């Protein structure tokens, strides 16, 4: 079973895998490795490291205008899987146009940082690495693409992770990491329990060196636990910490630990799928005002893919994309205008994200409601006049307002900029009317033009 349909929705290879034949005709170095199949079409031997490297070169040049050099003695990155991780980060940080990120262990390719800044031209990346060859090649790859103003490759000591790399006077939007996966050479060679005996041979070659694959003080679990421990010292500097994991068992172990910790960090987990490969991921933050976007949560359970997918479909946030001419700030003003107009009790959770609670339906049948409201106001005035003498008005009003406090809905609202267009996302969180977010969105759409006219006048 291929997992491509579970790739990130913005992953350009999700419905459009690389065309090997086209690439082979265009890129001479790839040509020798692309073979015609007897039944038509072409194939590439993923177990041949030369073929894998030539394909990576071709894909990066063709789709990202990136020229890189890779060593056959080091990890050759799989681009579609890297995109899954990066798009997830883009979602986590709210599609920020400007961001500063950190990549722990950039490898010789420096792939996370190169793709990150290619897709987000205003981002900056700080990349750490312990392996001298990787540092040299990563630096050259950055220079080869003239991205040294945006990407800094820093050689660190193997005992260092965050301490000594991060600057406590600076702010970073995210941290990412693809840690060395294995505990020792036995595990790295697949001789221990990472693959069960019933699983077939890996579909592609691994060119990773020992230094890249092995963290001999406990593999990726220990590596990530160390990052988590050190992250406490930078809770006010880094908004979102993330890491990828090569094994599901590592995720289970780390989550078990996090649950036991009585701490002020909150986290989510997710999976990245591509071809026959799955990777796992975890994101955590100490920012109590931050709400993880719904689409970033884990959405796959290997054995119940269909069920999970259906559930996920129900959770997909409503969205509304605006014309390029509307800035995020304009839409922000509009939203806050609507929240006030509909008397929704709202709270900013970040610059472009809110939650609102509604305790009465103020968006449907507005005219009738307004008439009712006027009637009610008249009755209240009469009551007030009658009761003023008895000094009991306050009590009555307080009692009736608490009696009516049944929550219709809590809704999460976010704005994100992508390709110069602002998109509004709304997700129903809880309450008695699960369609309420949809109804409010409809109200917003219906009143957008009249708001614009009002503003222009
Ligand atoms: C699995 S590789 C990931 C390479 C690349 N980011 C990728 O995804 O293809 C892990 C990398 O982390 C580096 N590394 C190991 N310990 C490190 C440390 N303490 N600080 C920074 N990098 C480290 C290794 O040299 C290796 O290049």
Note down, in words, how this protein is organized.
With 457 residues, the protein is an alpha/beta fold. The protein folds into 2 domains: 78-184 and 203-315, Rossmann fold (3-Layer(aba) Sandwich); 318-456, TATA-Binding Protein. It has 14 helices and 14 strands. Helix 3 crosses helix 4 (111-119) and helix 8 (219-231) packs parallel to helix 9. Mean pLDDT is 83; it is low at 186-202 and 381-404. This is U6 small nuclear RNA (adenine-(43)-N(6))-methyltransferase. It is an enzyme of class 2 (transferase). Pfam families: Methyltransf_10. GO terms for molecular function: methyltransferase activity.
What characteristics describe this protein?
7-stranded mixed sheet; 20% strand; 2 domains; 14 helices; 457 residues; 5-stranded antiparallel sheet; TATA-Binding Protein; Rossmann fold; 14 strands; alpha/beta; binds S-adenosylmethionine; globular
């Amino acid at each position: 079973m291929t997992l491509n349909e579970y790739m990130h929705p913005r992953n350009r290879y999700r419905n459009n895998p690389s065309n090997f034949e086209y690439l082979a005709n265009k890129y001479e170095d790839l040509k020798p490795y692309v073979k015609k199949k007897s039944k038509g079409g072409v194939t590439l031997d993923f177990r041949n490291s030369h073929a894998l490297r030539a394909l990576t070169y071709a894909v990066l040049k063709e789709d990202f205008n990136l020229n890189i050099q890779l060593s056959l003695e080091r990890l050759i990155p799989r681009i579609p899987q890297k995109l899954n991780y990066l798009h997830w980060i883009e979602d986590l940080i709210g599609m920020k146009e400007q961001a500063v990120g950190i990549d722990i262990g950039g490898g010789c390719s420096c792939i996370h940082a190169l793709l990150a800044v290619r897709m987000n031209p205003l981002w900056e990346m700080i990349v750490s690495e312990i392996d001298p060859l990787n540092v040299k090649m990563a630096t050259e790859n950055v220079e080869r693409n003239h991205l040294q103003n945006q990407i800094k490759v820093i050689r660190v000591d193997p005992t260092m992770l965050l301490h000594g790399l991060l600057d406590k006077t600076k702010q970073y939007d995210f941290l990412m990491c693809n840690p060395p996966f294995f505990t020792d050479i036995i595990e790295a060679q697949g001789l221990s329990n990472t693959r069960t005996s019933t699983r077939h041979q890996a579909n592609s070659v691994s060119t990773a060196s020992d230094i890249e694959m092995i963290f001999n003080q406990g593999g990726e679990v220990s590596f990530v636990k160390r990052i988590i421990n050190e992250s406490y010292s930078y809770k006010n500097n880094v908004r979102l910490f993330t890491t990828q994991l090569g094994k599901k068992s590592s995720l289970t172990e780390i989550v078990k630990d996090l649950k036991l910790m009585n701490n002020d960090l909150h986290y989510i987990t997710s999976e990245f799928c591509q071809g026959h490969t799955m990777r796992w991921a975890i994101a955590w933050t100490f920012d109590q005002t931050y709400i993880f976007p719904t689409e970033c949560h884990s959405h796959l359970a290997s054995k119940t893919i269909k069920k999970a997918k259906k559930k996920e479909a129900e959770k997909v946030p409503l969205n509304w994309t605006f014309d390029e001419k509307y800035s995020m700030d304009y839409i922000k003003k509009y939203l806050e205008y609507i929240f006030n107009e509909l008397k929704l009790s709202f709270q900013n959770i970040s610059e472009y994200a809110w939650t609102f609670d509604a305790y009465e339906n103020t968006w449907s049948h507005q005219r009738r409601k307004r008439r009712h409201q006027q009637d009610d106001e008249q009755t209240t005035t009469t009551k007030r006049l009658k009761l003023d003498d008895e000094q009991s008005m306050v009590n009555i009003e307080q009692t009736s307002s608490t009696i009516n406090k049944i929550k219709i809905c809590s809704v999460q609202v976010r704005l994100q900029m992508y390709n110069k267009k602002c998109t509004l996302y709304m997700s129903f969180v809880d309450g008695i009317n699960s369609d309420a977010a949809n109804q409010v969105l409809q109200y917003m759409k219906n009143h957008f033009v009249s708001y614009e006219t009002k503003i222009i006048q």
